[in-house]
Amino acid sequence: MKQALSLRSFIMAAVAVFGGAWLLQRVELVSGGPLLAVGPLASLPILLLVSLVAVGHLGRRWIHLEQGEVLAVYIMAAVGLPLASTGFVHFLLPGLVTGFYSFADPGGRFYRFFQHIPEWMVPGGAESPAVTGFFEGGVAVPWTAWVAPLAAWSVLAGGFLAALWGLFGLLQRRWMEEERLGFPLAELPLAMLERGAGLVRDPLMWAGVAVPAIIYVVNGITHYFLVPGEIPLAFDLGEVLVVEPWRAMAPYTAPFVFELSPLLVGIVYFMSVEVAFSTWFFFLGSRLQLLAAETLGRSADQGTFIGLGGQWREWPNFFPHLQAQARGGLLCIGFLTLWAARGSLAAACRRAVQQRGGEDAASLGALAAGTAVIALWAWAAGLSAAQSTGFVLLLLLTFVGMARLRLDGGFPVVGIYFLVGNLFYFAGGTGPDAFPPSTYVAFAFMSVLSYSGLAGAALIHFEGQKMARALGVSGGGRLGLAVAAGLALGLLAGYWSMLNLVYDHGMFALDQHGGARGVARVGRYVQYLYSDAGLREGAADLDRLGAMGFGALVTAAVAASRTFFGWVPLHPLGFVYGTGFGRLIWGSALAGWGVKVLAVRYGGAGTYRRLRPFFLGMICGDLFMRAVWALVAGFGTPGGGFRF
Fold first, then answer.
1. Mean pLDDT score, 79-93
2. Do residues 87 and 28 touch, judged by C-beta distance below 8 A?
3. Which of 330, 349, 322 shows the shortest CA–CA distance to 544?
4. What is residue 2's predicted lDDT score, i.e. its pLDDT?
5. Domain locations along the chain
6. From 201, 412, 476, 537, which residue has the greatest number of CB atoms within 10 Å?
7. How many CB atoms lie within 10 A of CB 545?
8. CA separation, residue 67 to residues 4, 64, 624 (Å)
9. How many CB atoms lie within 10 A of CB 339?
């Protein structure tokens, strides 16, 4: 069986990750160009894979690359590059310093929380050189101030990844051999590895590439020169629904926009028909819920949960609390997944105890060690022992549900905006009397585990195992080492490249005149999380708890209906997609579902297979155009890049 990880593949990945990290800071933070390292399929890792496959075919006389080596390089890059940019580092670093610069007024509402922020977690306090230099620039990186906090956060990141890697490893046999999950996001990299040259010679693939190429060439030129005019990809139904009560279906905090993405339409073609149908079906159902809330006079009822930071991630922040419904559905999916796999988990644990040294033993050990690291880290950050335990359990349950969304569903779920700390606030209330200040601080800073792409590394390992089996490559521990190497490379490259850029330019300048406005906003968001929830009195939010229960009930009912009535076209994953993320993806889900249904119904399985290269081409074309406009953005005005 062919081997994966080798010294040569590690060196190639290290060069790619450090070079890519340097590039990403300039494209995303300075130029404001397209995001190249995050999303359902990230551009840079896929383009690297295409390049390696091309080298393997065209340059085999000078360099012979085994499929396993190419797979290992791809996995290390797919793990490391997102972490080095918007997938983790861009969210983490601003949050550690923003409070001490932008909110350091001794008479302000933020200042009283500063004493509860552990010194080892941040590079310095108010007016420290590490903080002022981060925002004002023009100085060298004060590495002595950053070493300790970066090491601490790296330990948390490693523990989190180890826990997920171990848990998913115990579920591997259940998901890959018994349930046979779809892994739609592995289709493109697997196709490139299996038949790269044949795929490139297929005219249908190039026809697919042409679709996003034409669209984004025209729209990009229009962005810079205002002519010839954009090819519209979105239609805001709120412009039509302007009279009562219909305008309630398109509130500002939950837009009703039909939007198409060639990338997502291509991905939907490889998804389950039931998941795609359920996504747009339940999204339209959420619009009817908003209409019903208006009819009942409850559209202004925001519930008792308060806090600007928390509300931003609860949009639309009023009854019927759609995000709370989706959170309940996600937790239900996580619970049902573990319940259905209880036999497989028990068997894996028995094998781990009886056969020490095997994959199951490694998975169980990683789960135990990673869970302990997260719990101890959370306790040191300010949570009580009970809160730390509850936080870890809810976090892992959330990401088991997230794993199903990505591995079985396939839509762009990398990070989850469902902050675990909010669950404690829903149940226990907010304000000075609900929890101690250290609790609010710890939950705020550790929210990066939820909304970053850190968990995506464990899922990429799972997809790598799927590809390794298909290619006959030795996976197991070697691919696990590739994921660990990708984590280490990504964190080191991200810390090095972002801090050097920011201390040179200054975050204030990058925010106002560059492409870092969203990154700077996340830095402020962390401060809102602890200050608003910690200062504003609020009782337990029974409305949101009820919405979570309703979402869990609907999810369980849909899952049961699929078990007892095979003809039901709905899927529980679609409820979470449609209710929680629907405004971003429902249009592409509807279009991709329609094309696939027509292809299968009127052309059969043969037509579906013949059209696969076309939709793979749509995905490739979208990713390639992102790279093209990222390159163009480097020659334009800072912050003026074409981002799509």
1. 94
2. no
3. 322
4. 57
5. 152-443+452-633
6. 412
7. 18
8. 8, 10, 22
9. 9
